[in-house]
Every structure is written in structure tokens, then in C-alpha cells.
Amino acid sequence: MDPLIAISSAETSVPSEPGSSIGAAIAASLTIPSNAVRSVTFSLAWDCPEVNFSSGKTYYRRYTKFYGTRGDAAAKIAHDAILENSHWESQIDAWQRPILEDKRLPECYPITLFNELYYLNSGGTVWTDGSPPVHSLVSIVQRKFSLDWSRSGVKDIIDVSHKNDTAADILERMTSVLEQIHTTVSSNSAFGTNLLQKGEENIGQFLYFEGIEYQMWNTYDVHFYSSFALVMLFPKLELSIQRDFAAAVMMHDPTKMKLLHDGKWVARKVLGAIPHDIGINDPWFEVNAYNLYNTDRWKDLNPKFVLQVYRDVVATGDKNFAQAVWPSVYVAMAYMDQFDKDGDGMIENEGFPDQTYDTWSVSGVSAYSGGLWVAALQAASAMAREVGDKGSEDYFWFKFQKAKAVYEKLWNGSYFNYDSSGGSSSASIQADQLAGQCQSQSPEKEGGCCMLEHVVFYQLLTKTRRRSALEKVYKYNVLKVKDGRRGAVNGMLPDGTADLSSMQSREIWSGVTYAVAATMIHEDMSDMAFQTAFGIYETAWSKEGLGYSFQTPEAWNDKDQYRSLCYMRPLAIWAMQWALTRPNLLEPEMRQEVKEDSLFLHHRGFSKVARLLKLPEEGKSRSFLQAVYEYTRMRIGM
């Protein structure tokens, strides 16, 4: 049936209720002289001040700081947009124009750089005002409280603004009481606003999905790649995310969750471990929505936290932030000590996919996790120096020297082996083998107060080895896949065939390809970098590609089959921009070798913390609290 006939049919049409509105229209009239141009500005706005989660908690959005929480500000928002839109557009133009007009850049690069930012808005994004949540009655049904007005006079009850609006007054009273109920609870959570010092701005808290198909907030192993967009464009939001994870390090949640891969029940999150994500149904309070594997045993999360935090300190010059998160950095490093099985300073992977490549198993010392660990040790030493902890600075530098020597054993003459296990994939050429190297190249900021004095990262590897590894990745992982027009395949065997040992080893990850290109730029291999990244542009964004514009997937394979549309990791293209705009890296300063015998006290203290954080062996049930209790008894001689 013709839809117009259906609409006009008396049988299908339902009259509107008297006094109701079912639609609206706006119009503007003006006189346009001949050969003239006039513009008419329209604005559409809506006011949805609350964010509700299935846990029963409600948060106010960031904009309510400026427009209130009553939900009646749409007209004011539209009014402000009409008045300010020209100014906003000029600011956007001033930001983008230098990049768009930079003749050194390939034409496709600025297009892709700015368009990949779609995900910061389309990735399920939530930006709260940073206040504790307001509970619904569903979430606090077991708690005592009262809306008693007896302590207030009648004049206080009847607020002038709510006169003759008892419901509004009651709602405000309920909000106040429920906020008070929550105040003490936020200390047992990943609520990073608790780390703000007096006088610091509370910019709010930021959430975005790992992907529209992988609905977990702020997936941390992936944010490691996408965080470059935030630190360059919204640095205060980036610091807010890192504060949340710094708070999460100190969380211990013994409630049990069932793992999908083997059906075992494990603690949701243990003290010292960085969670995989900040949650889904009850973000900040119930972390680790991911349950395929036990991420408390992953080897990349804690090093990625240390690396990101230090990079953000360098990028922002925020010393208050450095001081606030330093205890979490120390605990995160101590937690990892249990994965150094032979005491050589290097962590070992445990024979399952215990890192972001969560279907690609790895065993022993590995190029990816091992490189992140070596870089994290160096970052921890540098950060200790920044906060004035000389003992920790020397101790982590000593551990860095030990671990670096072990890591270099993976070198086979032209690249770093995938791992040291001697298995069928051990000699794989991993595109992402220098991930720690890319993050460790944090440029110093110039200009007085923004510069961290004397902090320059020592290059983890010699320039010759770095360039050799990248050239190998380019020749094998990039050029051997559709003539270099699809990006870098994750794993390639030395014989020039893809590593078929897992789904992910044979995939091309768009975000990882951008990260590899960024590392190439750091090494002054820009032509190679842009050719590598071009594969992602051609596949996702060009007219000749696969139609992924504004929904860049996490992965595709050589058969052009994609996985996980609209994903966080492709924001890593901003790592390329970070590399392009960095000041010239200074030559590393020469540091005196630290002698082990001078670090006895620091080693003893670090080892005690590490022992308390150690996970129980399989089959044993001693909890963290039991360990603390036993340690306390021993200390007081009970």
C-alpha cells in the first residue's frame, strides 16, 4: 500500500489527545537581495541529564554543571549553539587547517586522522560530572535511610523555587539522601576522583566502549593504543581515566566470576592487578566485565598502566597527578614480580593468551609482553625520579638493566622472536613487537613549567636493531599481504606465509597497523610508515575499499572478512600524529650503573609488597586478606 494512502486512511489514523503535541515545525523568513547570500542557522538540542545503569546507579552528565539537572535546558542549549556556532567552527578550522595544509603529508592522512575521531562520539560515550552516583531504591533496598523532614523547618521544606511543586522538592530531598548514602561507598571502587587533591578541577569521568560489539567500558589493553587521541586532544579526560585505573589497582573484589574458556570460578579483581575494563553494568564499582580468561594473570595490563601514566605526566607536566598515582604505579610493578619465575628480572608468559592478543597463545619471554615490561621498568624509574623517590628510581633502573639483557636474547639477527618457547610460532615476525618502544619514546615538553627536568627515555634497543625489526615487519607483514594495500598482518612466518596458529595471528588489526606506522615515524622511516598506514585507509575509507567508513573494524583478514565493527583501537592513528609533532628526542643521558648491593633495603621492601600481592597457587584458596592477617601475626610475634 502507498504509505501516503495509509496515513490518510481513517482506519489507520489515530487522533491526538486534546492539548497534546505530536510534532512541531520551525520556519524562518528573510529577504535575499539579488546576487547576495544569506544564511539561516537552525539548532536542534535535547536535554537528557541522567545516565542510568542496570545496577541502579544514576550519574549526571558533564554538561549539567552548566545547564542544571532538571532536564528543561534544551532551549538554552539550542540558544547557546546558535550564538556560538560560528566561533566553534572557527576554532575547529584553526585546529585542523595546519594539518590539512601540510604538504609533507600524504593527502589521505589528514582525512583519516580526523575521521577516525568519530569513535570518541560514537563509541557509546558517557561523560559524567564526576560526582558520586545517585542510587535508585532498587540498588539500596537493603540499606537503612530516611527522608525525614523533622530536622528542617517548614520554611526550609518549601523552597521558593519549588513552591506549589511538592514532587520537585521531594525528589531533591531523595537525591540528597541517596548521595549521602553513597559517599562512603565510593572509596571501595575505581572512582579516581578520590585521588584529586584540594583545589584540583574535577573534569568528570569518561567512558567509552571497546567496540559496539564488545561492550565493556574503557578496555585498558586497547586504550593503550587509542589513548593518544585523548592525551593530545582532551588531556584532562585522559588523566581522569588514568586516575580511575590507579584507584582500581588498589581495589580487591573477591566475588566470584565464571571464566568462559575453562568454567573455573575466580575472584573478579585482586589487589595490585589492573582490570581489563572498568565494568559494564556497574562501572567503577564492578570492574572486569570481560570473562574469557582471568585477566589478573595477563602480562600486558600492568606495564601498559605504568607506561601510559608516565607518558601522560610528560605530556601534561601535571606533577600533582604524578604524586597521586605513584603508589598505584609502585603496587602495579610489585604485583608483576610474581611472573618473573626465575628471578632474572624478566616476566614470562604462561602458555595461554595472557595479553591483548587473547586467542594467540604465548609462552616464556615474549617480544610483546617482554618489551612492554622492560619499557615499564624504565618508566617506573623515571617517574620515581619525578616524585622524589630516589630509592625506587635506582631500584627500578637496576631491574630494567637486568630485564633488558634477558629481552635481547630474543634477537635473531633481524627481528625479535615472538617468544622463547621454541614452539611452532616462536620465530613468528610479530608486527607489534616494538609496542613498548613506541610508548617509551615520550617527548619532553618545551617551555618552563611543562618540562620534566632531565627525564629522557633511554632507547630500549639500538637504532640498528629497531630499524632492522621495522624493515622486517614492512617487507613481510605489510608487503606480502595484497601488495601492501591492507595493513600489517599480526604474525608472519620467516618463510613469508601468514602465521595460522590462531585467528588473531592471521588477522590485520587496523589500530596495531597505525601503531606500527607511528613507531616507524619515530625512527625517521616516514615513507614506510605512510605506506603501511595507507593499507588501512584504502581498506576502510577509500572508494575502492570495503566500505568501513565511520565504522573501522578491529580486524580483517586476507580474504577481506572483518571482525568487530566500530572499534576503539583505530584511534591509534593519533600515535602517528604524536610522533610527527614531537620535538627532536634528545640523546639519552648516561646513567651510572646501579650496584645490586646498594639496593638491599629497597629490594627487601619491594619483595615484601610483592609477596603479599602474589596470587594463590592453583587449587589453594588462601586469599589476600588471609595473607595480610598471617603477615601481621608474624610481625607482632603472635
TrEMBL record:
Single biological process term from Gene Ontology: carbohydrate metabolic process
**Gene3D superfamilies assigned to the protein according to its UniProt record, in alphabetical order:** 1.50.10.10
Q: Which residues form the Glycosyl-hydrolase family 116 N-terminal domain?
A: 9-88
Instruction: Pinpoint the Glycosyl-hydrolase family 116 catalytic region domain residues.
Output: 204-576
Q: Name one GO molecular function term.
A: beta-glucosidase activity
- What name has this protein been given in UniProt? Non-lysosomal glucosylceramidase
Organism equals Fagus sylvatica
